Amino acid sequence: MLTTKIAFLICLATGVAALWSLFLLPSLVAFQRRHLQRWAVFGLNLLLGATGGTPVRVADRVARL
């Protein structure tokens, strides 16, 4: 039973790490390319992510108002 819980936690942590890396992909690319506005890209990633906001979700929420 303990082994399944540990396996579940490892899979969960791996999934969360994978989703975060996909979420921060634009920032990772900007930093790797040493873009001049890399901190702005990172800030927008955090801001839009914290507000739930890919453009599709934002447009959907506005359409529902």
Short description:
Helix content is 82%, strand content 0%. The protein is mostly helical. The protein has one domain.
Describe the model.
The structure is a single chain. This protein has 65 residues and is mostly helical. The chain has one domain (2-64). 82% of the residues lie in helices and 0% in strands. It is built from four helices and no strands. It starts with a helix and ends with a helix. 0% of the residues are buried.
Secondary-structure element string:
HHHH
Structural class: mainly alpha
Instruction: Count the beta strands.
Output: 0
- The rough form would be described as flat
- Mean model confidence by pLDDT: 80
Low-confidence runs: none
Q: How many discrete structural domains?
A: 1
Radius of gyration: 16 Å
Q: Per DSSP, what share of the residues sits in E-state strands of 2 or more residues?
A: under 5%
Q: List the total number of helices.
A: 4
**CA(first)-CA(last) distance:** 47 Å
Helix content: over 70%
| Biggest sheet features | none
